[in-house]
Amino acid sequence: MALIQIDDSILSIVEKYPETLDLFVANGFPQLADRKVLESAGRFLKLGTALDKKGIDRDTFLRLLEERIEDDMGKVDITLREAEAGKGEFHFSGALPCPVRLPLLEAFDREVQRFQADTGKRVSYELEAASSGAGWMAEMIEKAKTASDLPDVFISAGFETFFDKDGFGRFRDAGVFHDPLPMKMNPAFDGIGLADPGGCYGMIGVVPAVMMVNLNELNDLPMPESWEDILEPRFEKRVSLPVGDFDLFNALLVSVYDRFGDSGVEAMGRSMLSAMHPAEMVKSGTNRKPQKPVVTIMPYFFTRMAERTKTMEAVWPKDGAIVSPIFMLAKKESAEVLKPLLAFLKGREAGEILSHRGLFPSTNPDVVNPLPESAPFNWIGWDWLESHDVAAVIEHATRLFQEASAGVAP
User: Fold this and answer.
1) 56, 103, 287, 308: which has the highest count of C-beta atoms within 10 A?
2) Cα 110 off chain centre by
3) Which domains can be identified in the chain, with CATH numbers?
4) What are the mean pLDDT values of the chain's consecutive 10-residue runs (410 residues total)?
5) What's the angle, vertex CA 122, arms to CA 116 and CA 128, rounded to 5?
6) Torsion-angle region of residue 316: left (phi > 0), alpha (psi -120 to 50) or beta?
């Protein structure tokens, strides 16, 4: 049963779920921070009407509200079971993209219950929201002395933690992990070599970075069409970047570094006007700040929230949306037993949750990914990952970016 209805008043939602107030304030309703405004206007303003006025997609914002409620109040039974389960005979660990975490957990928990009933083997899992960061996973890997100290399956996104040669790499290179279910890739990824030729990383989807252009701020500037375009001097201090989204931002860093070198990373630093959470980026076309970004770089998912806004236009880069991979890593010694659960994670149901509910394109070949007619992807490639010290590149590129962006800070 839905926690919130589209016809609920803003006041009734906030009074019942106080933790939603900051989500409203951060997404185009700053006036609601004033209690008097909330109690007066909010009493009569319906959620659907408010979202329509701001051009924010109803279904997307409803999911964001309900996820905030579930995460903060812990009302979902599966989350409670996850916390109470302790470590089972087999353990899954990792992070799931925030917009799809709850539906994926619900479906995964159902599969876990079936697996336990069929096999008598106990499974526990700890699958956090990706917004919480990967620091806890990196710490777990750093402390692990042998493979037995690690979970049986990792699920995660991004580059740094799981492609660090000195950290996770010692277990990967020792052959600890193996993808027991290699499969044909979804045709959306034809030609980019997304499948791991080493048979270690089981790719289940991607988080694509695209551009959102504020037409009111574009003026006489040409419409950007590629990543190279926003590195031009004319876009200095005109771009908002997802610096707080570490997985996606690191994907941007390594891709720009690979294609354009140090000078490209420095140009990206100079281009930054502001660092925004994607939800804030969506409202950047309607806010009243003196300086507004012309271009915002965001996960494709968040373009849904602005699809009814006439002043904002989504641009899929012609040289490909830069992607952060979503993958699973299974221990070779556990993979055979856990195949039913691994098959679910790579299967059509999980793929459709990722793709249809989160706009995170699935690698499953049976999923119809809702993408623009021309939607190429920009993937750094396995050869690059194998031939570079990824953590060192990210550290180097981050320093260059920070120095360049500080040099043009207002």
Assistant:
1) 56
2) 24
3) 10-57 (no CATH), 77-206+322-378 (3.40.190.10), 209-321+396-407 (3.40.190.10)
4) 83 87 73 85 89 76 78 49 59 87 90 95 87 77 90 88 84 92 94 94 95 90 95 93 80 95 96 61 46 86 68 91 95 95 97 93 96 94 93 94 75
5) 100
6) beta
204 within 8 A of 354, measured Cβ to Cβ = yes
Q: Which two tokens stand for residue 246?
A: 């570490």
Which residues sit opposite 225 in a β-bridge?
A: none
Per-residue burial over 269-302, b = 16 or more CB atoms within 10 Å of its CB, e = otherwise: bbbbbbebbbbbbbbbbbeeeeebbbbbbbbbbb
- DSSP states along 50-96: HHHHHT--HHHHHHHHHHHHHHHH---HHHHHHHHH---SEEEEEEE
Give the pLDDT confidence score for residue 131 in this predicted structure: 66
C-alpha angle with apex 89: 87 to 94, nearest 5 degrees? Answer: 55
Paired strand residues for 362:
205
pLDDT at position 279 is 46
Q: How far is CA 345 from the centre of its chain?
A: 17
Q: Residue 104 corresponds to which tokens in the numbers above?
A: 């994926």
**Residue 213 in contact with residue 315, Cβ under 8 Å?**
yes
pLDDT at 361: 97
Q: Whose CA is closest to 332, among 176, 123, 162, 171?
A: 176
Cα 276–359–294 angle (5° rounding)? 35
Q: Which pLDDT does position 278 carry in this prediction?
A: 46
C-alpha triplet 210, 211, 217: angle, nearest 5° = 170
Three-class SS of residue 297? Answer: strand
Question: For residue 208, what are the CA distances in angstroms to 146, 185, 348?
Answer: 34, 16, 20
> What is the pTM for the complete model shown?
0.79
